[in-house]
Fold this protein.
Amino acid sequence: MKTVAFAPGHISGFFEPVYINQDLTKTGSRGAGINVSLGAMSEVVAESATKQDFEIFVNDKKSDALVTKLALKHLIGEKPLHVVVKTRLELPIGQGFGMSAAGALSASLAFAKIVGISNTEALKASHCAEVQLRTGLGDVFASYFGGVEIRRAAGLPPWGMIEHIPGRCDLVLCVIGKKIDTKKVLADSTKIENIAAVGRYCTKKLLENPSIENLFSLSQIFAKQTGLVDKRVLEAIDAANHFGMASMCMLGNSVFAIGEINKLCQTLSLFGEVYVCTVDECGARILE
């Protein structure tokens, strides 16, 4: 049986890592971000077999896809199944677009549909895989629900809580520099301490005045005060701010912006590859 699912990409404007006693379901991040219409589409086929076997293709190339594979293993257990996953990623990996999360979540949802288990189990498997492999903390949870979101509490429901900021807008994304290794940043205890403090402040301030404009303003504060933003990305943000609002995608050498779309495209194309998308309000879903 074949099933296809989609999960939106997710851009974090700022975040506060939260680790709870090695419990993957309670671990995650507080913060805020935007789910976008460019994401991951996964076609999954599962058949009975004599042993457990995975074939995963990402953009037509065979891939280890460690987060997707671990998420599926969480769902399958020891059952002997042959699973083929074909994932199409619409944005680059390692640039703060939540592509590993979207890939794992879309594949898990499609597989869950095939074997008749709940979407909640697919969400849990994907979140736990991402946290375990340190490729992200809150992207899976955010992508599942869609929209412009504030993650009030970390982890999965009933512990994790999301509040939505109403509004739909077009966005311009721009990839400017090299990939950022999320695992390396999350493993750096000195950096994480500062990131957590600034992220906590930004989340508190956004909850006091929840708006997309305030999300961008606080995201700029987070990027600068954590020292995560490099000079070239900062130049792109400053240039884009003439035609709207922009900030750094966490964690990537990339920028997201709203405002005068044509002028933002022209301006940001001087810094790198540009993508145009909208807010995805629907979240992860089965397509067929």
Q: What stands out?
A: The longest helix spans residues 189-208. The chain has one domain: 1-288. The CA atoms of residues 162 and 260 lie 29 Å apart. Residues 1-288 form a domain with the Ribosomal Protein S5; domain 2 fold (CATH 3.30.230.120).
